[in-house]
Amino acid sequence: MIYILFTILLAIFLDRTAPMRNGARLWSWYGDWAESIEQRFNGGTRVQGISAVFIAVVPMLAAVFLADLILGEITWVLKFLFDVAMVYLCVDLYRLGSAAQAVSAALDAGDVAEAATHLRDLTGKDVAEYTDTTVARATVEAVLKQANSLVIAPLFWFVILGPVGALLQRMASVLDRQWGHRSERFVEFGWAAARLDDLLGWIPARITALSYAIMGSFEDALHCWRRQAGMWSDINSGPLLASGFGAMHLQSCEEPDEDAYGNKIIARSDAADAGDVRRVVALVWRVLLFWLGVAILMLGAHLFGFFVR
Which residue range(s) make up the domain with 192? Predict the structure, then answer.
């Protein structure tokens, strides 16, 4: 436990302070490789998608597993440094926070177009309409979701499976973002990537959603989670957004209304603004510090019990 805690603490410190993260896209190379695999394998079937995921994931996992094993046989110091590097590579809290803060600064300056550009850098897609409230709310939504995939989930799987687990989760997230079946081109081919990411994110997403409630408005978050999590088609986005919006008082937690066509409409209690973007970044930091504090307390209790025996 001491080893895992110090590995995570050092990786987060590096993520926060290392200058190479400014503008660096450490996963762009993997995205390019995934794109080349897709161009060779995408024939529009699930079997081809499963094969592509296998090729994109397994060799990397095998290489990391062997490297970690060999370095551990040489000396624990090399293994520790390697594990720190892997967690540092998989956790991307700095980019998430800096991109959101850039949106907030642009909104404060009244430059909605620039804010939308920063939002596109964060999510990889455009919003339907460029207004200050829609850009701010889309940014809050993106941070609530990506805090799980870029922070909590890789840390969770590192604790469970070591560097292999953290790398597997992050690769699955990248593949789902590129191949997830959200268009005709990927409706079958992207099925395996989407299901793998859903599977690896299921437990961390609910831990993150519960953390939003603990660090925000607990009653409102759980109320929204219970009533409205099913309003989003993504099985992991539902709890994250319902709990996160409820914790921040950005969502009405009453039963959703229906429009003239029978579609359910999610009620919103408040329009988001630049201040809410800053609040959601602060919420993510509180969640991370909360779990680090829990880990430190557990470690302290363990050490205390060891010394008083």
Answer: 2-18+26-307
